[in-house]
């Protein structure tokens, strides 16, 4: 056996031991997730603007991250928002980068990891002397990397951001949404061209860091992804993800895989397949083992469950409670052997309850949802009102828009609760805030209770 073969054999043996350890972990599902993260999406505006991270300064971000840390989370992640995909030219863009570099240092000082998402084919069309803005303005294009000069022109942007945040613990190269190419000629191989170049550069900049190939919307590397509806998009996501997994041994050795895991939790996928029971399972434990056998890291990147975006107007800009579904997701991930996971936040100061629950459940996926809700209620409410707040939050949980969207066979049983919308709305008026919360809330309990009140008013689909 020559040296190279010996090293490959050694890597294989270590990967196999890791797989066996993961199987043990999967069986003991009260164990914490190793990476317990949140991805911040700061590309939307909202009223009041103070809730939109698009406008936050460093001091506000610091409060947000201190809160996540207190909730038991240990990873944060950012991305370059749609209109910002260019080499920065305005004072506002430069300030954002300066703040984010301070956030990176702050995260490291707290013992948290910092991750950054990179794009591929997208380029901002905002004039250089104008500030980029929220993404519904949609001032950006995607360029086919097969056309001469386009690959070099587009890969320069993620390379710039990788060099800027080179101290990050990991990066993700996001397949699409934004990005990708639907010209009909491009495919997964064209996505992997970006992965290769970025991974090779990362080896020079930060050798221990992983570059995850994130297969979110990988079906947008192909012709007409919606030709067969959303069902087709998600079916092609499985095929494309498996193509990436199969390619791993031929990719630089710092490349890992991040999987959206849509088929394990997302209402749209269950609905498109005619119910949860008819939805194919992806990833399976075998998929995850294949990644580990290649000696690579694997990360789950589920989205929309902690917080939702303006595409579903009823759910946008209100407080959500998804404790049961967050738990079901984490338990499903554990069954596959995945122990690194990134949740998501759009309006972090509204989603205090889901963030708290995410932290508690990532630390112990066996915690009872009722216990988590009660613990959160004690944090927010005056001690004489905590039980009442827990019941109100249980009503919000049972009537969540997430649950509304899930086909009946995927719905989880409601938690015991005697309230209806009218009584929940009435009771929430009487909750007094906790004068001395035991964790560093990023906004006052009083303010969050106000947001909860106006959220219940907006849940008009519920009885
Ligand atoms: Zn193309």
Structure, described:
There is one protein chain. With about 475 residues, the chain is α/β, with parallel strands linked by helices. It folds into 2 domains: about 10-365, TIM Barrel; about 375-460, no CATH class. The chain is about 45% helix and about 10% strand. The protein contains 15 helices and 10 strands. The chain has helices at about 5-25, 60-70, 90-110, 150-165, 190-205, 230-245, 265-270, 285-295, 325-335, 350-365, 370-380, 385-400, 400-405, 420-430, 445-460; strands spanning about 35-40, 75-80, 115-120, 120-125, 140, 170-175, 210-215, 255-260, 300, 340-345. It has an 8-stranded parallel sheet with strand order 9-8-7-6-3-2-1-10. A two-stranded antiparallel ribbon has the order 4-5. α5 (about 190-205) links the parallel β6 (about 170-175) and β7 (about 210-215). α4 packs parallel to α5 (about 190-205) and α9 runs parallel beside α10 (about 350-365). Mean pLDDT is about 95; it is low at about 1-25. Bound molecules: zinc ion. Zinc ion (ZN) binds next to loops.
């Amino acid at each position: 056996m020559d040296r190279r073969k010996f090293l490959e054999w050694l890597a294989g043996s270590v990967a196999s031991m890791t797989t066996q350890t993961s199987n043990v972990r999967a069986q003991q599902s009260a164990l914490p997730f190793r990476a317990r993260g949140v991805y911040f999406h700061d590309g939307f505006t909202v009223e009041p603007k103070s809730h939109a991270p698009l406008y936050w300064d460093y001091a506000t971000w610091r409060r947000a991250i201190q809160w996540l840390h207190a909730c038991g989370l240990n990873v944060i992640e950012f991305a370059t928002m749609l209109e910002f995909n260019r080499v920065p030219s305005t004072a506002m863009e430069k300030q954002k980068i300066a703040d984010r570099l301070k956030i990176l240092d702050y995260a490291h000082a707290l013992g948290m990891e910092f991750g950054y998402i990179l794009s591929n084919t997208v380029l901002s069309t905002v004039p250089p002397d104008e500030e980029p803005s929220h993404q519904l303005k949609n001032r950006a294009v995607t360029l086919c990397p097969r056309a001469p000069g386009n690959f070099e022109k587009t890969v320069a942007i993620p390379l710039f951001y990788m060099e800027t945040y080179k101290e990050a613990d990991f990066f993700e190269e996001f397949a699409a949404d934004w990005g990708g190419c639907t010209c009909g000629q491009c495919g997964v191989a064209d996505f992997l061209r970006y992965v290769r170049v970025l991974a090779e550069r990362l080896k020079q900049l930060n050798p221990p860091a992983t570059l995850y190939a994130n297969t979110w919307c990988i079906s947008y590397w192909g012709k007409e992804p919606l030709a067969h509806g959303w069902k087709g998009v998600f079916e092609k996501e499985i095929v494309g993800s498996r193509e990436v997994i199969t390619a791993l041994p031929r990719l630089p050795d710092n490349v890992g895989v991040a999987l959206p895991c849509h088929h394990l939790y997302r209402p749209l996928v269950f609905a498109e397949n005619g119910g949860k029971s008819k939805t194919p399972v992806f990833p399976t434990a075998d998929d995850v083992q294949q990644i580990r056998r290649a000696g690579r890291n694997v990360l789950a990147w589920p989205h929309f469950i902690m917080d939702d975006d303006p595409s579903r107007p009823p759910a946008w800009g209100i407080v959500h409670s998804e404790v049961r579904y967050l738990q079901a997701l984490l338990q499903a991930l554990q069954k596959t052997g995945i122990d690194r996971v990134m949740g998501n936040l759009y309006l972090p100061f509204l989603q205090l309850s889901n963030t708290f629950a995410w932290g508690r459940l990532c630390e112990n996926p066996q915690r009872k949802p009722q216990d988590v809700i009660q613990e959160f209620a004690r944090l927010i409410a005056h001690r004489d009102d905590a039980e009442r707040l827990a019941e109100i939050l249980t009503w919000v949980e049972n009537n969540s828009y997430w649950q509304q969207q899930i086909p009946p066979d995927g719905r989880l049983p409601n938690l015991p609760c005697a309230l209806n919308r009218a009584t929940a709305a009435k009771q929430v008026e009487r909750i007094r805030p906790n004068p001395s919360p035991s964790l560093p809330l990023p906004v006052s309990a009083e303010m969050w209770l106000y947001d909860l009140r106006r959220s219940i008013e907006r849940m008009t689909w519920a009885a």
